[in-house]
Structures are given as structure tokens and as C-alpha cells.
């Protein structure tokens, strides 16, 4: 083949290739902007929020303490001659229940002697009144004129006062003997749980000696601690227009299980801060902590010294959005989906409790809050939600 033919064939091939390239470029599909945007929009989940009135729940911990606690002591001395069977640790007793009996023989004798002294004093008073009547008649018959002091002596007024004073002293002595005799019976001063017993039959006791330790069973306190910032949301018993304080749920999951709880009342605030935490101590009243009252339903018992969790219902917050704390982002911001785009809203948080944030400003009814955690957060970034299918 000649060189001329070779050049002609090569030229034709080049022309054909060029024509093919032109055809390919002319028939290339055009990219649509709308579909590209849709493909790059981030898929998110959203919730619709609404404003309303809500009560926050303040969670904290506390310890169980008795409202009443005493060391039982005798008021007279002597030997213990009787101990009631209920006077043992762990026993519950009613007010007035006999716990111990001190030997009362000496006190019986003293009472009898004081009773005799009173009878004698009353007899002497009666005799002295008779003598005074005789002296008055004699004075009236004598028709003497005397000063008031001499007249009082003649009429035996000092002797009468002495006899009357002796009767009063004898009555007081008899009353004291009766009290001492009564005090030989040591009784429970209130409905109580016996925690300790330190004496038994045969023990010699004296006033002020520690016989045992008792705590009242009508009420226990749960001493909890809350931040100072929470105080304005707490409702204490007798606070303003309410007769009872806020309702409190008390949990002890290790002893009662995850579902077991008791309810109490927020009673009062202790006027001091804990040194280490700078939290405010509050007292929660828990009635019938041992479930002794028969009319009450069964409730788990509270044990003194127990460590418990408490949930305090706070004062109602008006016109706010309640949002899970998980959806409150850095620097009090919230991600909102608006017109398919991401909006980063700065919000004013009125209060946060254990689970929620209560937002005063920054969100309105119907706003769609993004609940998905995004790796890239850019204002106006395109968003989309998964379309529901029938």
C-alpha cells in the first residue's frame, strides 16, 4: 500500500473518532439540581413540641431518720422486778405500754406515811379552828381595845395559818409520794419502736440512767439535699395557699425492687447548707413508716439509716415547652427543622430536672425539633424525614 492511501485511511479514522466524541457529548444526560439536593439532604427524626403548664420532678437522695428519738430513763431509783416481753429490740409498742417495773415497796410505805401525815395535819387544823372560836368569844366578852397586831395574837390567827400551812405541806408530800409510786412503772411515752434495751430484771437503776433507746413510729423523716436554685420550685407544708407540701415518691430499689415506692410530703427546709456539697437540707415526712396502722394498704417498711432516692414534685411552671434534656444541645441551643433546613435556635431554659428542660423562650407550638445526633451541624443544612408509607 502506498503512503498516500495510508494517510487517507488514518485521516478517515480520526474523523470518525471525532464524530463519535461529538455524538457522545451531545447525548450526555443533564444533572437535575433538585434531585441532587434531595440525595445529599440528611435523614433525621423530629418531634413536634407544644407549650403548656408542667410540674418538674426534682430527683435527689436522702437518708431515713426518726422524728422522735429518746433514751428511756427512770425517774425513781430501785431494783427492776419486772420486764415486759415487748421491751426487746425490734418490738413496736403503743403509748402507755408498761415496759419495766421498779420495786415499789418503799414507795408504798412512803405513800402510807404521807397519807397519815395529812390526816394528822387536817386534825390539827380542825382543833386550831375550835380554839380560835373560843378565843374570839372570849375577846368579844372582854370588850378590850387592842391594836391589830395584839388582836391577831389574841385571836390565834398565826396558829391558824401555821395549821393551814401544815395541811398544804402534807398534801404536797402525799402528791409527791403518789407520783413516785406511779413512776415505779416505766411506760412507753409514745408509739415507739424499741432499738436498744440496756437493763433486765434485777438491775439497780437510778434517775437519768439509760434504760434503752426508743424511736417514734408515727412519722419518720427523709433528710434530702437539693440545690439552692431549686428552692423556688418547691412547695413546703403550710406554704402559702397549700395545707400540705408537695408529694414525694421514695424509692429503695435495692430493698423494694424497681417498682416499689412509698409516698411522703415535703415538710420543711432546714436552715443550713451541707458543708461539702453546699446543698440545702429538706425534710420529707413519711407517716406510718413501719406499716403498723391496720387500715393502710401494705407498704414496704422504712429502716432508719437507709439510703433512698426521692422524686419531689415541683411547683407548676406555666407557658413553657417541655423537652428532653437529650435534645438540648451545647450552649442552650436546640436544632429545629424548618422548611427542610436546619435551624440552630438559642433558647432560654427556665429549669432543668432529671429528665427534661423547661424552655421559656426560643420554641413555639408546632416547631419540629431534631432528635437525631448529627455529625455535621451547619445552619441551613438540608434535612429530610423518612416518608411514611401505607
UniProtKB/TrEMBL annotation:
GO terms for molecular function: efflux transmembrane transporter activity. InterPro entries: MdtA-like_BSH, RND_pump_MFP. It holds the Pfam family BSH_RND. GO terms for cellular component: efflux pump complex. Residues 69-213 form the Multidrug resistance protein MdtA-like barrel-sandwich hybrid domain. SUPFAM superfamilies: HlyD-like secretion proteins. NCBIfam families: RND_mfp. Belongs to the membrane fusion protein (MFP) (TC 8.A.1) family. This is RND family efflux transporter MFP subunit. The lineage of its organism: Bacteria, Pseudomonadati, Bacteroidota, Bacteroidia, Marinilabiliales.
Amino acid at each position: 500500500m502506498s503512503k498516500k492511501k495510508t494517510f487517507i485511511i488514518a485521516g478517515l479514522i480520526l474523523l470518525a473518532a471525532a464524530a463519535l466524541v461529538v455524538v457522545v457529548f451531545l447525548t450526555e444526560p443533564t444533572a437535575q439540581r433538585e434531585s441532587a439536593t434531595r440525595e445529599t439532604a440528611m435523614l433525621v427524626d423530629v418531634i413536634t413540641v407544644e407549650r403548656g403548664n408542667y410540674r418538674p420532678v426534682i430527683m435527689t437522695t436522702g437518708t431515713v431518720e426518726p422524728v422522735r428519738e429518746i433514751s428511756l430513763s427512770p425517774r425513781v431509783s430501785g431494783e427492776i422486778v419486772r420486764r415486759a416481753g415487748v421491751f426487746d429490740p425490734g418490738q413496736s409498742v403503743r403509748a402507755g405500754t408498761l415496759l419495766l417495773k421498779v420495786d415499789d415497796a418503799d414507795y408504798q410505805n412512803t405513800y402510807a406515811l404521807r397519807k397519815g401525815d395529812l390526816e394528822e395535819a387536817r386534825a390539827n387544823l380542825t382543833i386550831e379552828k375550835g380554839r380560835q372560836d373560843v378565843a374570839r368569844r372570849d375577846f368579844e366578852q372582854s370588850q378590850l381595845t387592842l391594836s391589830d397586831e395584839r388582836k391577831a395574837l389574841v385571836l390565834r390567827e398565826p396558829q391558824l395559818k401555821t395549821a393551814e400551812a401544815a395541811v398544804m405541806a402534807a398534801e404536797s408530800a402525799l402528791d409527791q409520794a403518789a407520783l413516785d409510786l406511779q413512776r415505779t412503772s416505766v411506760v412507753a411515752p409514745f408509739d415507739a419502736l424499741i432499738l436498744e434495751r440496756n437493763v433486765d430484771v434485777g438491775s439497780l437503776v437510778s434517775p437519768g440512767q439509760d434504760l434503752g433507746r426508743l424511736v417514734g413510729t408515727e412519722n419518720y423523716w427523709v433528710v434530702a439535699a437539693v440545690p439552692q436554685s431549686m428552692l423556688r420550685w418547691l412547695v413546703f407544708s403550710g406554704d402559702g395557699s397549700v395545707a400540705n407540701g408537695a408529694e414525694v415518691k421514695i424509692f429503695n430499689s435495692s430493698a423494694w425492687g424497681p417498682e416499689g415506692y412509698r409516698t411522703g410530703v415535703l415538710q420543711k427546709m432546714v436552715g443550713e447548707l451541707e458543708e461539702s456539697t453546699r446543698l440545702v437540707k429538706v425534710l420529707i415526712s413519711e407517716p406510718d413508716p413501719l406499716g403498723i396502722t391496720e387500715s393502710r394498704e401494705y407498704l414496704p417498711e422504712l429502716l432508719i439509716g437507709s439510703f433512698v432516692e426521692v422524686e419531689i414534685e415541683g411547683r407548676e411552671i406555666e407557658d413553657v415547652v417541655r423537652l428532653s434534656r437529650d435534645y438540648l444541645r451545647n450552649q442552650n441551643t436546640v436544632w429545629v427543622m424548618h422548611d427542610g433546613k436546619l435551624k440552630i435556635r438559642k433558647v432560654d431554659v427556665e429549669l432543668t430536672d432529671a429528665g427534661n428542660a423547661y424552655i421559656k423562650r426560643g420554641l413555639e407550638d408546632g416547631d419540629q425539633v431534631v432528635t437525631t445526633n448529627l455529625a455535621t451541624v451547619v445552619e441551613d443544612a438540608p434535612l429530610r424525614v423518612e416518608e411514611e408509607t401505607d
